[in-house]
Design goal:
Blueprint lengths: L7 H16 L5 H4 L14 H12 L6 H9 L5 H5 L6 H17 L1 H24 L4 H8 L11 E4 L8 H14 L3 E4 L8 H5 L3 H17 L4 E4 L2 H8 L2 H5 L8 E3 H6 L2 H7 L7 E5 L7 H9 L6 E3 L19 H15 L4 E4 L2 H7 L9 E4 H9 L6 H8 L2 H14 L4 H13 L1
Parallel strand pairs: 1-2, 1-3, 3-4, 5-6, 5-7, 7-8
Helix pairs in contact: 3-4, 3-6, 6-7, 7-22, 9-19, 21-22
Length: 429
Amino acid sequence: MNPTTDTPFASYIQARIDQITERCTQCGKCFEACSMLPYTDLEGAEPSAVTRSVVDIINDRGHAPEGAAWVQACQKSGSCIDACPEDVNPREMILYARVKLQQSAFGREELSQRGRNFFRRLSGIIRATAAIQTPPELYRRLTAVRYRKKAAAQNLFYFGCHILKTPHILLSCMDVFDRMGLDCEVVGGLGHCCGINHFRMSDLEAGAAMGTRSLEEFRSYGSEQVITFCPTCQMQYTEYRPLYSGPGDDELPFVHVTKYLARNLDTLKSLCTAPVNKRIALHLHGGTDGVEENVKAILACVPGLEVVEIDQHKDHGYQCPTLLLPGATEAMREKLLSSARAAEVDSVVTVYHSCHFELCPEEGNHPFELENFMTILGQSMGFDYPDWTKTFKLYGDLDRVLAETGDQLRRHGIDPEKARGPLKVALNG
């Protein structure tokens, strides 16, 4: 991200940095709203000084260490966005600052190599984790475009790539759409990444190139909108949309699955006929507008279901895997699980697949289930896919997992012993 590089992408980034610099008054309200401060040494820091330091970072100026510390502490909760009185997106500002810091520490080429290596490792993890849970024919249903109609489908369902680690959630979602009669194409998998994995390695240009290729394919379907499941994909293609398409974008709408379902409650009510007699608590995050209200309205369509309010950290990251600060994950989990236990719920229900993947092993330590809201909808519609993610994690025994799934891995063309490393990371990480 060298502003002297003569490329449209670099020029756009510099233009965004200039806009942010001009509009930011360095009032510090974004810093004051940050939910991560209790897990840092920044409590008591002067808000305006911290914000000024971040602005200095994105402009390649000398900066106070507090600015760099806040950048590293960001977990993308989005609390700062609503707090800004100047309509600056502080989350975007911090993204550029993080890239600047990373490029100063490692250099562009090393970051690019780190990004490629990370993506390769992640691909292996996702592929192996999906393979132990789905036979090849079912996996093909998940990764292949199903219809490719001559006439454009009204909707495109884009599920990203990480959800393949929890295939029962994706299968449930696809079946719900089928029951609703949704006119759609389905696309996803690592070949259609939004670019977030390169973004995380501070290689914005590679991430944007990958996301742009996916966006161009989305447009080729001629659909009216893209329905997403993953909160990261939703954020990347809305909040960071210009990084992919630049000025003059046709603004193909990206609609989160919870918003789509909430717009079609009458249809859901007609399909959710089987009672699900459970007392549940929702596991919630901020960062994606309207999700909490949407999912509550969706689950209100399920007869017999009681949703109870519990005390939890909704502002700790926009999903569980983003919580990387020491103490933040533990605090979020402790408050969520202890509150759920006190409320005597039957299930803690996640919204995001990534949260489910992280939290589901907690079922072994508590007197309630861990489920996803799509599983609840499926139960009410008459189908229920086994949650092998949870089963295998609860085993706590990789040898047992490989013994039970070795033949299936071979059917996928995967050597079980070569899958041992990726699965150890996935199931025990």
